[in-house]
Specification:
Layout (H helix, E strand, L loop, with lengths): L5 E4 L6 H10 L5 E4 L2 H6 L2 E4 L5 H10 L3 H10 L3 E5 L1 H4 L4 E2 L5 E2 L6 E5 L10 E6 L1 E2 L14 E6 L1 E5 L4 E6 L3 E8 L2 E4 L7 H16 L1
Parallel strand pairs: 1-2, 1-3, 3-4, 4-14, 5-7
Antiparallel strand pairs: 5-6, 7-11, 8-10, 9-12, 12-13, 13-14
């Protein structure tokens, strides 16, 4: 199987190196961290990481003039992309975290504060099982109700037709979304041990096949 050309989009967030380490550990060699337009446009697969506040991440994308590049790559050229945590949330129409901030608007929805019952801590930090809502290649290699590592205080509300998995945190929380070539996960596969590596493998194999 031919290895895909993979770009982890660099827009100044903190988990790019840990994502690189996880993907590299799977044996992928055509891998780089970059914010260069030509690298992004020539990639076979893109990974959009994210940690921290939505507003700062969205601002970083704008300052580096990455939105038009990503729109061209993802919406026009149909490059496969996987968003992680805030990287997934950036795919929404807008976020209500510390004010209202525009997202990439790739999958219509809104990022809102996580408001579970009182016995649940916010932010949601730790391991949670997910439940698949419809089939998706991301979960082809994981067992039923796999667990993943979460770290977030806001969550993505969107139409059910875009939700591929959710988790129970006193309320139903969107854990994974998909629309055509666009995928996102609220959890951190790079911190989720074997199940996380299997998600990366499934995503990248679907691009290479």
């Amino acid at each position: 199987m031919k290895q895909p050309n993979i770009v982890i989009v660099d827009y100044g967030v903190g988990n790019t190196q840990s994502v690189w380490n996880a993907v590299r550990a799977l044996g992928y060699r055509k891998l780089r961290i970059s914010c260069v337009a030509d690298d992004i446009l020539n990639a076979d697969a893109l990974i959009l990481p994210g940690v921290g506040a939505f507003a700062a991440c969205a601002s970083n994308l704008r300052e580096r003039k990455l939105k038009p590049v990503l729109d061209e790559a993802v919406l026009v050229r149909k490059k496969a992309i996987l968003g992680i945590c805030v990287g997934m949330q950036l795919m929404a129409t807008a976020s209500e975290e510390n004010g209202v901030h525009d997202g990439l608007n790739w999958i219509p929805g809104r990022v809102v504060r996580l408001e579970p019952p009182e016995k649940y801590a916010v932010p949601h930090v730790g391991w949670n099982n997910i439940e698949q809502r419809r089939g998706d290649v991301l979960f082809d290699r994981v067992p039923e109700a796999p667990n993943f590592y979460f770290d977030h205080g806001y969550h993505y509300r969107c139409d059910d037709r875009f939700i591929t998995a959710d988790c129970d945190y006193g309320i139903r929380v969107t854990a994974a979304i998909q629309r055509e070539n666009i995928r996102g996960v609220q959890f951190h596969p790079e911190k989720s041990q074997n199940n996380g590596l299997k998600v990366f493998r499934s995503f990248l194999n679907s691009v290479a096949s």
